[in-house]
Amino acid sequence: MNRLITTLFVTGLALGSLGSIGRGSARAADWDLDGSHVTAQFSVRHMMVSTVRGQFDKVTGTAKVDDADLVHSSIDLSIDVNSINTREPKRDAHLKSPDFFDSAKNPTITFKSTKIEKAGKNKFKVTGDLTMHGATHPVTLATELTPAVKDPWGMTRRGVSATGKLSRKDWGLTWNKALDAGGMVLSDEVTLSFDAELVAKAAPAKAPAAPAAPAKAPTK
């Protein structure tokens, strides 16, 4: 009987640990993405001769960071598709149109981590669900998380950077044109790059202790 109880206890601990990977744990601290220090970039080959780069200017997100075991951390991002910026207004308008992102119907891109694996000192492989253009598929990003530091204003910060690649046709982004000499106007492969600062959320203030009840006068 004792052996059975021990086995059930150990199994429960293992399942609880596995269940927390990529989704945060009870020990994880809450962090916010600093919108003024974030860059979400992409690049794609154009006409087989150059690379076009762009970015999204509005990105929000939160993270849970478990410093006791960082694989139990998680990150959740949201990108405003209408903030796309390739430094060419006509191209930006085309990218927002139904030929590409169709931002009227799909105004946001989201990424929710599902699994985090160690890949070296402060380096990780972060796998998550990327939802874009009405479709959701997994993406794995090579990610680096810096140790926490205090800024001059007393805030605790840390940096996160990630890179990866995806096939845009997996999300239904299939617009293209054939070139007379062969090949296509745009490559299918897209390179992603993400850099941001995270700011630790302040711990909630503790409620003041209730005043002690006045002592009763002794009865005569």
Structure description:
The protein has a single domain, classed as Beta Barrel (Lipocalin). Residues 1-24 have low confidence and may be disordered. The protein is 12% helix and 46% strand. By secondary structure, it is mainly β. Strand 6 and strand 7 (123-132) form a beta hairpin.
Low-confidence stretches: 1-24
Number of domains: 1
Mean pLDDT: 86
Q: Report the count of strand segments.
A: 11
Helix content: 10-25%
Question: Ends: how far apart?
Answer: 61 Å
Net shape: elongated
Assign the structural class, choosing from mainly alpha, mainly beta, alpha/beta, alpha+beta, or little secondary structure. Answer: mainly beta
* CATH fold-type name: Lipocalin
What is the number of helices? 2
* Spatial ordering of strands, largest sheet: 1-3-4-6-7-8-10-11
* CATH H-level superfamily: Lipid/polyisoprenoid-binding, YceI-like
CATH top level label: Mainly Beta
- CATH architecture verdict: Beta Barrel
Any chance you could write out the topology, listing elements then pairs?
Elements: H1 2-20, E1 29-46, E2 50-56, E3 59-65, E4 74-80, E5 84-85, H2 89-96, E6 108-120, E7 123-132, E8 135-145, E9 149-150, E10 156-167, E11 189-200
